[in-house]
Amino acid sequence: MKKHLFPLFLLVLGANVQAQQDFFAIAGKDTSSIVFSDFRVMDAASGASGEKIFSADAAPKVFSQERKGPVLEDKNSYNNSQAVTMAALAYDPSNNNLVYMPMFSSNIYVLNAKTKEITLVENTVSKVTSCDINSHITRMATGYDGNIYALNNAGTQLLQIGKKGGQYTVSDLGIIKDDASNGKYSFTAMETGFGGDMIADAENNFYVFSASGNVFKVIAKELKAKFVGKISGIPDSYSVNGSAVNSRGKVIVASAKGDNLYEVDMQTLQAKALPGGEKPHIYDLASKYFINDRASSVSTLANIDIYPTRVDEHFINVTANDKAVKGNLSLSIFDISGKNVMKQNLAVKDNSLNQQVYLKNLVSGAYLVNIADESGKVILNKKILVTK
């Protein structure tokens, strides 16, 4: 049965007219070295820059999570929220936060994209030193389980940045090693595996794009990196420094050298340039989307929905107001493996529904909620993330 249910968890991502608001970048100045300019919104369809959220010249409001108060930072050090060496960014959609780390620092910063306030998460777990290029954190991504993951150049530390009691926590998951089949395309070698960025898929695995354009699949449970192939269709001199998934499930890559953004087909690793000709200097990209994730909101009816999708209490609300909604509906919840973990009937009255559903004993993680009509036809699929 699981074999038939799992594809249901993988429904095609629909286009989202607001998708560009969920696509972010660390941008740099027009220099030969890495010099942080700003965090900005990007249009993932054209590659054009949008709103600048926070810049190197802004006056920061930084609050220490550990000390529970404001802090003053030395802007001449690597340990500050506007350090020149920025190369790792992830987006936490639950709070509209940008989570990032300066490349030569162990500090983790959380920038609220709306208020512009920054939380400093003092990180004693990672072993970053400015003089050791192997230790620099250059890749970050939001995992399908809702945690943020960060990886250093040599793969010797995979960090998990989670939340507990409203506070960010950091764990070291271990060392990522080369798969035996990698041969000369080593994940841990500077020439073939360093730098770049990473994205996540719907099974909480990661794809790391090295600066050289090589792609490795990192299976987090096994702590192994397997060489997938090399991106084709980009210039020979192109340095892949940012990667993120757009609302259609396509991967966008960007370069710190100042060049076009490219859309990459993950089946063929063929890249095509986005139409915009801006050629920004991009050190990292981030979004809320995943590859192989077909668990976006897909509805055959106009006025049926589930909220919230980030569940930090024990309930979700199901609403419907559509003439096509008749009789009783059934709600089913599947975990990430496709196992049906909950089922409940929903009563529709006068073509409308407004019902609160108790999630019982669901543990933290990603789930797919689907609603079917009396005939068994699925009329809504939506992913939720339980964080209670």
Keywords:
2% helix; Immunoglobulin-like; 2 helices; signal; 32 strands; Secre_tail; single chain; Secretion system C-terminal sorting domain-containing protein; 388 residues; 6-stranded mixed beta sheet; mainly beta
Word description of this protein:
The chain has 388 residues and is mostly beta strands. It folds into 2 domains: 23-287, 6 Propeller (Neuraminidase); 304-386, Immunoglobulin-like, CATH 2.60.40. 2% of the residues lie in helices and 45% in strands. The chain has 2 helices and 32 strands. Strands 5-4-9-8-7-6 form a 6-stranded mixed beta sheet, with no helix packed on it. Strands 24, 26, 28, 29, 31 and 32 form a 6-stranded mixed beta sheet that branches. The chain has a 5-stranded mixed beta sheet with strand order 14-18-17-16-15, with no helix packed on it. The longest helix has 4 residues, at 2-5. InterPro entries: Secre_tail (IPR026444). This is Secretion system C-terminal sorting domain-containing protein. It holds the Pfam family Por_Secre_tail.
Task: Break the fold down into its secondary structure elements and pairings.
Layout: H1 2-5, E1 23-28, E2 36-42, E3 49-55, E4 61-64, E5 69-70, E6 86-92, E7 97-102, E8 108-112, E9 117-121, E10 137-142, E11 148-152, E12 158-164, E13 167-172, E14 177-178, H2 190-193, E15 197-200, E16 206-209, E17 214-219, E18 224-230, E19 240-245, E20 251-255, E21 262-264, E22 271-273, E23 282-287, E24 298-299, E25 304-307, E26 310-311, E27 315-321, E28 328-335, E29 340-347, E30 352-358, E31 365-372, E32 378-386
Parallel strand pairs: 4-9, 14-18, 26-32
Antiparallel strand pairs: 1-2, 1-23, 2-3, 4-5, 6-7, 7-8, 8-9, 10-11, 11-12, 12-13, 15-16, 16-17, 17-18, 19-20, 20-21, 21-22, 24-32, 25-27, 27-30, 28-29, 28-31, 31-32
Keywords: Signal
Signal peptide: 1-19
Protein name: Secretion system C-terminal sorting domain-containing protein
